[in-house]
């Protein structure tokens, strides 16, 4: 599925608007991201009439590329200072409020990020099917400091997904801050985007950027997932003009 | 050779002495030292003696241990305050971690050493946790090999929910942890080897940021060659429930179909457990006000509760002669007193199920010269007064502040033991 033009479905950079504050405050606690257990969700007064939509996202990429760190980054957790192999499946829940452009409705996206170590995937057969079970989106990761991981992208995309899958696909380049050691050039990235029609995001560096740093990726995920669901529900004539209106609640997963 | 305070773990192949990994210190020991440590052990073996530990003249301590006749672990401490017992536990726990993550077969496969080296990296997270000090705060299990428990005001409610949840997940092994301590566990979970229960708690603690996990694990005693799946769900930050499963059900399935429906009704109860905090006893159990810390072990069930209650800055005029002890200091003293008492006077709870792991007794064998075995012991230091008490079923280690008269320790300890055991049926 071709990806959506950024900002066509949801309000871009909404986290910078003053009116979004009361929503974003629900995912913050003492200026850091709030931690939610599985039994919890952002507490919203009923008059706000905000729905929570749930999606499962699988993070795929070579060993050491930074899958666990990306999940921590998106969730606003402390990024591990040391690299450890992930020896199984770990999931992380991220809540993210979004305002739909057309209707002005606010939705809370609940992304559950699934991260699985490459060695574990290889050693145990049940892992990959488990990660792919009812998955809505896949983030394909490569590291800017490892050219092989970039070359491996197309392989991975072919191996894990099938053309008929109804899955949102995005590519994330990690360790973008280590530009001195960068191994992947801008033109290579641009060419990849053109050939595959999949947007590429760059991540890395300090988390001091706060929400601003993760907003482009989370917004794009939300936008593409919402668009995919709307298309599936038949409420949207392709490609990017959205008319979610009343049809929104039935298509929640 | 090593900075004080640091402990390093080395792993080598037992027969050829090829170094496989080293963890613990940022400054690795020079290769020549590692070689000598291995060499001196090998020399001993050549003379039909087993070198198990030694002290260096600069206050260091080294301990060797060969597992499965294939791998050797060496613990090196730069600090003589690290007891032999602590090092021994560290080596056992490290080995168990390796089995937990990789399984016994993988560890026994020494034909491809480079491959094994790569595979062993998967254990580093857990091993580093064992070596790290901050995570240990208040956790005694890795030392006592008894599960750290939390006694809640409504145990039956949680127990019933856990039993039902575990069964619904097609498992018999379920456990509810609050801040890393066992608040409830199914009968089968308690039948796991105590070391396994302790290790699984440590594993769950190490995953604290995640919402849920599906980890393949081998049980070092129960199932060292066949992997099981540990499914863990973070119900609230600090409250985790886990089950041990076979190939099904999937993580997604349990999470979407079972977690909410079994645990949502108990959200408030779980929150109250969290509020108990470091105190592993319900608020209804009153301890003597001079109690600094206590460790109570149930020797039959191999469970323990530990409480740290350092004095808060009191309204009374500050007594400058006695500085207040911090919580971490209290934990440290409690740990030291446990080691002191258990290596000198009391018996240690070694599991008999694993003959391979039975060690020569630790050096201090006070009781050998006596026809009786001590049931009480006490120790007065500059910082606190300690009292230890042993019954057939329990061991109590109590730390009191210096204001308590020494002659009162015994009755306070006896009283404390009966208060806690009576009130909680522990």
Brief overview, please?
With 253 residues, chain A is an alpha/beta fold. Chain A contains 7 helices and 8 strands, in the order H-E-E-E-H-E-E-H-H-E-H-E-H-E-H. Chain A is 28% helix and 21% strand.
Structure description:
The complex is a heterodimer of chains A (253) and B (426). Chain A is α/β, with parallel strands linked by helices and 253 residues long. Chain A has a single domain, classed as P-loop containing nucleotide triphosphate hydrolases (Rossmann fold). Chain A has 7 helices and 8 strands; from the N terminus they run αβββαββααβαβαβα. In chain A, the strands form 2 sheets. A 6-stranded mixed sheet of chain A has the order 4-5-3-6-7-8, with helices on both faces. Chain A is globular and about 50 Å long. With 426 residues, chain B is an alpha+beta fold. Chain B has 3 domains: 7-132, Beta-Lactamase (2-Layer Sandwich), CATH 3.30.450; 150-276, Beta-Lactamase (2-Layer Sandwich); 291-424, Beta-Lactamase, CATH 3.30.450. Helix content of chain B is 35%, strand content 24%. Chain B has 13 helices and 16 strands. Chain B has helices at 31-46, 84-102, 104-108, 113-120, 124-131, 141-144, 155-168, 187-190, 194-206, 251-263, 267-276, 327-344, 409-424; strands spanning 7-13, 19-23, 53-55, 61-67, 71-77, 147-148, 173-178, 181-185, 212-219, 223-236, 239-245, 291-298, 303-308, 376-380, 385-390, 394-400. In chain B, the strands form 3 sheets. Chain B has a 6-stranded mixed sheet with strand order 6-13-12-16-15-14, sandwiched between helices. In chain B, strand 15 and strand 16 form a beta hairpin. In chain B, helix 2 runs antiparallel to helix 5. Chain B is globular. Residues 351-358 of chain B have low confidence and may be disordered. The A-B interface holds A 35-40, 56, 72, 75, 77-78, 82, 84-85, 87-93, 112, 117, 119-120, 123-124, 126-127, 129-130, 133-134 and B 101, 119, 121-122, 124-125, 128, 207, 209-216, 227, 229-230, 233-237, 239, 247, 250-253, 255, 259-260, 263-264, 267, 270. Strand 4 (89-99) of chain A pairs antiparallel with strand 9 of chain B, so a sheet runs across the interface. Chain A: Belongs to the small GTPase superfamily. Rab family. Chain A: Keywords: Cell projection, Cilium, Cilium biogenesis/degradation, Cytoplasm, Cytoskeleton, Exocytosis, GTP-binding, Nucleotide-binding, Protein transport, Transport. Chain A: Residues 232-253 are annotated as: Disordered. Chain A: This is Ciliogenesis and planar polarity effector 2. Chain A: It holds the Pfam family Ras.
């Amino acid at each position: 599925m071709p990806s959506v033009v950024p900002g066509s479905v949801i309000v871009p950079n909404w986290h910078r608007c003053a009116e979004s504050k009361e929503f974003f405050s629900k995912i913050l606690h003492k200026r850091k991201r709030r931690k939610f257990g599985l039994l919890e969700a952002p507490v919203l007064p009923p008059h706000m009439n905000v729905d929570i939509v749930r999606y499962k996202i699988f993070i795929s990429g070579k060993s050491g590329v930074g899958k666990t760190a990306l999940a921590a980054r998106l969730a606003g957790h402390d990024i591990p200072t040391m690299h450890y192999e992930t020896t199984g499946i770990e999931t992380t829940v991220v809540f993210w409020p979004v305002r739909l452009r057309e209707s002005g409705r606010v939705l809370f996206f609940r992304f559950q990020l699934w991260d699985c170590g490459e060695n574990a995937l290889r050693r145990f057969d049940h892992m990959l099917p488990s990660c792919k079970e009812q998955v809505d989106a896949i983030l394909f990761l490569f590291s800017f400091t490892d050219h092989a991981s970039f070359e491996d992208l197309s392989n991975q995309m072919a191996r894990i997904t099938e053309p008929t899958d109804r899955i949102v696909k995005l590519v994330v380049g990690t360790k973008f801050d280590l530009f001195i050691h960068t191994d992947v050039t801008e033109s290579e990235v641009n060419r990849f985007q053109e050939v595959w029609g999949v947007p590429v995001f760059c991540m890395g560096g300090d988390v001091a950027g706060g929400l601003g740093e993760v907003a482009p990726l989370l917004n794009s995920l939300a936008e593409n997932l919402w668009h995919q669901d709307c298309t599936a529900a038949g409420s949207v004539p392709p490609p990017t003009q959205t008319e979610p209106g009343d049809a929104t609640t039935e298509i929640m997963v | 050779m090593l900075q004080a305070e640091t402990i390093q773990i080395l792993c080598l192949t037992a027969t050829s002495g090829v170094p496989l990994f080293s963890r613990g210190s940022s400054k690795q020991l020079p290769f020549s030292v590692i070689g000598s440590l291995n060499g001196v052990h090998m020399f001993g073996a050549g003379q039909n003696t087993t070198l198990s530990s030694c002290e260096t003249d600069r206050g260091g301590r080294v301990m060797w241990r060969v597992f499965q006749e294939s791998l050797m672990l060496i613990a090196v401490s730069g600090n003589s305050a690290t007891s032999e017992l602590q090092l021994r536990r560290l080596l056992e726990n490290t080995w168990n971690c390796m089995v937990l993550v990789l399984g016994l077969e993988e560890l026994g496969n020494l034909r491809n050493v480079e491959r094994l080296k790569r595979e062993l990296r998967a254990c580093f997270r857990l091993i580093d946790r064992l070596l790290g000090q901050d995570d240990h705060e208040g956790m005694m299990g890795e030392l006592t090999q008894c599960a750290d428990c939390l006694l809640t005001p409504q145990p039956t409610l949680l127990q019933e929910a856990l039993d039902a949840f575990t069964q619904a997940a097609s498992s018999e092994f379920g456990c509810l942890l609050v801040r890393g301590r066992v608040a409830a566990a199914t009968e089968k979970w308690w039948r796991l080897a105590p070391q396994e229960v302790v290790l699984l708690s440590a594993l769950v603690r190490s995953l604290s940021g995640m919402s849920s996990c599906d980890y393949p694990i081998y049980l070092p005693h129960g199932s060292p060659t066949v992997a099981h799946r540990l499914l863990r769900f973070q119900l609230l930050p600090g409250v985790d429930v886990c089950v041990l499963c076979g190939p099904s059900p999937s993580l997604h399935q349990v999470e979407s179909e079972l977690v909410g429906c079994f645990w949502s009704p108990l959200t408030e109860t779980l929150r109250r457990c969290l509020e108990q905090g470091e105190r592993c006893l319900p608020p209804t159990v009153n301890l003597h006000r001079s109690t600094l810390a206590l460790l109570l072990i149930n020797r039959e069930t191999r469970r323990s509760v530990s409480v740290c209650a350092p004095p808060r800055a009191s309204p009374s005029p500050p007594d400058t002669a006695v500085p207040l002890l911090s919580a971490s200091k209290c934990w440290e003293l409690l740990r030291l007193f446990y080691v002191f008492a258990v290596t000198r006077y009391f018996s240690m709870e070694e599991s008999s199920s694993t003959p391979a792991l039975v060690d020569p007794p630790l050096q201090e064998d006070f009781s050998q010269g006596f026809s009786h075995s001590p049931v009480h012991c006490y120790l007065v230091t500059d910082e606190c007064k300690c009292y230890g008490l042993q019954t057939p079923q329990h061991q109590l280690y109590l730390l009191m502040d210096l204001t308590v008269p020494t002659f009162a320790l015994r009755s306070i300890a006896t009283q404390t033991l009966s208060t806690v055991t009576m009130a909680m049926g522990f």
